Amino acid sequence: MQEILNQYFKRDEKNELVPIEENGKIFAILKNKWLEAKPEEIIRQKFIAKLIEEYGYVSEQMAQEVKVSNSKRGSGKAQADIVVWKTKEDKINQKNAFLVIECKAPTIKLKLEDCYQGMNYATWSRAKIFAIYNDNEMQVYKIDESKIPILSDSFKPINDIPKANEILDENKLEKFLQKTKEFKGDEFARLLHKCHNIIRNNDKLSPEAAFDEISKVLFIKIMYERSPKQEGIFSLQQFKKLKSAWELARGKSDKAESYMQKLFEDVKEEFKNDGIFEDNEKIKLKESTFEAIVKELEIYNLTKTGADVKGIAFEKFLSKTFRGQLGQFFTPRTIVDFMVDFINPKENELICDPCVGSGGFIIKAFEKIKENIENEYKFKKFELQKKIFGENQEYLDNKEKQKEFEKILSKLNNEEQMRLKQLSCCAIYGTDANPRMARVAKINMIMHGDGHSGIHHHDGLLNINGIFRNRFDVILTNPPFGITYNNDLPKVQEDDKFKDERLIEEYKKKYGEIYEEELKQVTDNIGKPIRNLFEVGKYTGKSEVLFIERCLDLLKPKGRMGIVLPEGVLNSSDLEKARELFEGRAKIKLIVSLPDEVFLSAGATVKTSLVFLQKYSEEEKNEFEKIKQECENELKEKLKIYEKENQLSIIKKNLRNKKLEKEIKEKLRKNKKEIEKELKQLYKYLETKLMPCVRENFDYEILVADIKKAGITSTGDMTDNELIELLKELKSIKVWE
Q1: Using CA atoms, how far apart are residues 47 and 138, in angstroms rounded to an integer?
Q2: Which helix (H) or strand (E) holds 54?
Q3: CA–CA separation, 200 vs 212, rounded Å?
Q4: Is 495 part of any domain?
């Protein structure tokens, strides 16, 4: 087989075998003849060569462009690009195929549900594995025969295609098929750790500094690989090639001291609107270290590798790096999952986390909505198949029906892409005061399929770009605890002002006059304490309490909010006034008390609760204020009655009488003081009755749950998770209005 490969294939710049073209034709090994060099044929022959060289299969056990019929009477025929049998004997004896592959053009995004020919062939021929390939990416699925054929539930993603020598041993094969896609994620996570250690060892940087540098390299790689002007993967070979060209063409006006720094300058320009890099920031690595990292990462194309693989891997890397080495605080995944699933964000809603951290909440929300959109289109496509090709796919090999299907399929894919783009570009927002965390969140979002453009390095208590008051449908956050904003510091700084006039004009057009008004929250308060921007600041400067008001400010009327809070906020007597203030703005929907151990693994010792609120509509707000006023009037009436009973007004009148004897006046003054003291005490007492009176008349149900196990132990290990059952119970009740 190697002789045939050497004769009809050559190596490209990525050292991959590609078919040699002669007179517009390429040699098809499995057909043993020359075929027109169409893009799809080139891809198919490349993959056949890969199966032979990398996986050890032989041409005698493979075939291309094979048709098969369903066993049901009257069904049509499905065609597969490449079919592989376990042995050449199985092929000769027309036994069931083992592996079916469908090839797509490099420009087509791989979607399982779009590969209707290959999927049908794979299920009808009872194949074990189905793979799809487009020269940039390969997706591999095992086929579960117990599921209904064709539905995507029948296809479970696995790591790779097994080698030819693995498929004959049933035990080895079964073990291989048990591997899921997360195994690739593990590989990528280990590679990121390796890169992190290379930086620490070569350049002697601290864990924090090493992470900052690897994030810069990742940004360069991402920017390169998603540019249509560049060639495929950002490899070491490609870096050196571009570096040589840059050095030859470099002019005196180019300020970058090296090509490595030039690439980073391009990254800063690309992400300048997000404020995640300082203007004077540079890569702090030796060029040899930079090249070593590029070499390690070149096996992955970060724009082509599936978002699930990249996302899982990057989260694992973050989890170990930040918890273990950087000591940064992260919200455990079990808590994030529960909060997002309970809030249930929807398409066309605006979502924000003003303390974004690594981006856990917004990523989960993004993934949840994205999955819903994708599932909707999967269902539409399966229904379309039945409508056009018939319930038994009897018209599957009808060319006119295929054209009709492809036309509608293309329209559906465009619709789906537009909706996903809207979600990615316009629905997700986050800020973090720590530049490192803003950077982490942005990379993390890109790894999970983009949606990074709304993330900013900025104080979460202040307005920035698209993050301002009365704008969001959903807020999900875990604010910083234990930081005190006093009456002097910190202040709103000149640096907090957004000064890019070009972007300000863009945002004015995008958001209208309200944007200009919202900028004043910063521009009109330069030099003033941040605490004083908030009503609750009269009573406390605790960061977690200020962020409750900030989140309520950000929400639209009827907006939903989930927040992690220390339990002291809910029961501390010195925060009673703050709680009353929040009760006047939102309904408390649910309080979930968490076990102490949940945040211990992250180094936090404070007992926490999850609090879910829904901001009042205008009608509810007016009703609340009306009831509060009625209660206040009722209490004031009681004070008046007391004053009347004690004839305080008469005493005051007599004290103004100059003719009254001194001794009598002294008695009256003493009596007045006693009455006023009693009135003050009574007023305080009646004041404590104000909110109970309001709550009694503005009554609604507050759900409370006390969780003993939340899926994570004090050491970070997995354990039972009562939140799953709680969520099931909550879904059976209509909680959100």
Answers
A1: 10
A2: none
A3: 11
A4: no
pLDDT at position 79 is: 76
* Alpha helices, H only, 271-332: 287-297, 307-318
Beta bridge partners of 34: 27
Closest CA relative to residue 214, chosen from 314, 303, 333:
314
Distance spanning both ends of the chain, measured CA to CA: 67
Helix, strand, coil in percent for the chain, rounding step 5: 55, 15, 30
Q: What is the DSSP letter of 163?
A: P
Write b or e for each residue in 576-597: b if 16 or more Cβ atoms lie within 10 A of its Cβ, otherwise e. eebbebbbbbbbbbbbbebbeb
Number of neighbouring beta carbons within 10 Å of residue 563: 23
43 vs 128: CA distance, rounded Å: 23
In terms of domains, do 319 and 381 share one? Answer: no
Token pair belonging to 151: 């539905």
Residue 264's alpha-carbon distances to 94, 279, 690, in angstroms, are 57, 11, 60
- Please tell me whether residues 451 and 595 are part of one structural domain: yes
- CATH assignment at residue 64: 3.90.1570.30
Do residues 466 and 507 lie in contact, with contact meaning Cβ atoms separated by under 8 Å? Answer: yes
Are 321 and 339 members of one domain? no
Number of domains comprising the chain:
4
Strand order in the sheet with 455-457: 455-457, 428-432, 351-353, 472-477, 555-566, 608-615, 586-593, 703-706
CA-CA-CA-CA dihedral for 19, 22, 24, 30, to nearest 10: -50
Q: Are residues 140 and 246 in the same domain?
A: no
Query: Which tens digit of pLDDT belongs to each residue from 449-478?
Result: 666 778 888 899 999 888 999 999 999 999
Give the sign of the dihedral formed by CA 665, CA 666, CA 668, CA 673: positive
3-state secondary structure at position 305: coil
Helix H or strand E segment including 586: strand 586-593
In a shared domain, residues 550 and 406: yes
Q: Peptide bond preceding 490: is omega within 30 degrees of 0, i.e. cis?
A: yes
Dist CA 32 CA 283 (whole Å): 53
> pLDDT tens digits, residue range 33-82?
999 998 889 999 999 999 999 899 999 999 998 887 655 444 456 678 89
Per-residue model confidence as pLDDT tens digits over 534-581:
999 999 999 999 999 999 999 999 999 999 999 888 888 788 888 889
Residue 735 placed within a domain:
no
Q: Is the pTM of this model over 0.85?
A: no
Angle 630-631-634 (CA atoms, 0-180°, nearest 5)? Answer: 85
Q: What are phi and psi of 472, to 5 degrees?
A: -105, 145
User: 413 phi and psi, to 5 degrees?
Assistant: -65, -40
